[in-house]
Amino acid sequence: MTRFVRAALALLVVLALAGCGGLSSEGPVEPGREVGSGRPADLRVTFNGPRTGESQESIVRGFVRAGAASDAAYDNARAFLTASVSEAWNPDASLVLLAEAAPPATVLVNPTTVRITAKVAATVDEEGRHTAAPQGSTVTAEFQLETVGGQWRIAALPEGFGRWIASTEVNRLVRPYAVHYVSTSQRALIPDVRWFPVDRLATRLARAQILPLPEHLDGAAVTAVPSGARLLGDAVSINSGVATVNLISSKLAPGQTTRQNLWAQFVATLTQDPAVTRVSLSVDDVPVNLLTLDGSAGTLAEIGFIPPPPVTLAAPVVRRGEEVAVFDPSSLGDQEPREPADQRAYPAVPAGFSRLALSADGSEVAAINPGGDGISRWRDANRYVVPLPGGAVGSPSYDRRGWLWVGAVGAGGAGAPRLFVVNTASDPAGGDAAAVAIEAAWLAGRRVLEARVSPDGDRIAVLSTAADGRDARIDLTGIVRSRAGQPQRLASPLRLGASLSRATSLAWLDERTLTALGVLEGSMLQPVIVTVGGGVRALTAAPDAVAITSTGGERALWVTTSTGRLLGRAGSQWVDSGPATDLAVASG
Fold first, then answer.
1. Would you say 493 and 462 are in contact if contact means Cβ atoms under 8 Å apart?
2. Residues 308 and 300: beta-carbon distance below 8 Å
3. pLDDT, tens only, 147-172
4. pLDDT at 573
5. Geometric angle at alpha carbon 488, from 485 and 490, rounded to 5°
6. Assuming Cys at both sites, which of 290, 295, 352, 571 could form a disulfide with 370, CB separation 3.0 to 4.6 Å?
């Protein structure tokens, strides 16, 4: 190959990657490592080390910039540090994801101290927990410097300082991935989304998988990974797409089911790495054998881990005044009205009842009573008042397993129950139709505005406020059920959308994503996307919005307004789609 051809090919690679917004032009592109890479392309990015005679500010700026290297290529970043600090520095101790592409502002406080400041979008801790920062937040760090051989070097880092990553570099360097656990109520996996640097991704994912079960899933899930297990060599090797996981542990529980669960967790988690197509699993160098498997596995089906079939949900319903009818979004704008495919008849729900909810099978609807003092259910043409030991009722919602959830302030002070369930399989006129309290001590003193069970049925997102209506928060937690499937208590909460200063209305879009009406900055209530991994993203404001839901993911969002209108999403805008008091989506 001629020198000209080699140069042309190199230029094409650089231009293609730069067009994706992910590759900096400030450092060379070099061949990356084959083993453990999380990138489909065999490239790595590095940045220059310190030059002779650089100022204190330049040394700090260079160190922060060099932290954006990929494939764990931090040698040049460490060159800005003294030898002892370089040895102690952990680039993954914490990640600060900046809100801007510009480098942090740098100030020389005194000859041996440099301060940097920047706007922050989010932080990621060492376990991969992503926390979105309130809009406009800033982060500051101070570095101590000294001279080594006549050259300035960083002699002390702020406690826990890992890396600051510019907004344009985030997608290239760190992304959300799911770590998986096994449901205690069904044959299924529960995803726990974390954010990890993409270099050595398979190893990072495996390290996360062997950690103890997260507190917010305690009781709702288990892990088949033995307590105290370690990775042999603290790494996962990848050869021809096969990731080899060798655990050091002598405590693997016996039984085919335990082995299947262990395989399922590692296969589901590690195959998110684009470099991994199959997984090989051993404990103390002994292969974890299954009756149906010989060697490696790339899918859950290969190991006999078959999740339950999806639940068929009833079509959404819209309420216009008192009339409740099946909602067919595809018919909006038709010149001639057409009959919906589902012609199920629903009873009228009188004015004054609010926040309509629809059961998964479409057999009933529920709503808050006028005055907010209780809940009513409608089945066929009959209305049933739910015996509920509490007031200040929140919006009702159904899950896919036949339970109606509702928040209410029970009697008995701050420690009284705040969340209840109703078994819709029982006679709505019988004694078993009363609401039963859910144990959740962390809700003490709060008011539940809305609680939405995830599509998998194992987790619930709870929107609550303090008694005075302030301190709105969205919490994700596992549902602990009895052997018969009845919800009994909630695990510890994991806060989502921490950057929201206010929130109302909540709906799931998929197993990893919710939508809500919230306030990110100022006082405007607007639709937002909230991920279970901690991310928050604002959408275009919808005037007079009071509730939000979806008939099919983010592209099919709908908002009802205080003026009785239904707004549908068209691109990034909201379009008036006619009158509507409520839009209820089954298990939405």
1. yes
2. no
3. 999 999 999 999 999 999 999 999 98
4. 93
5. 115
6. 352
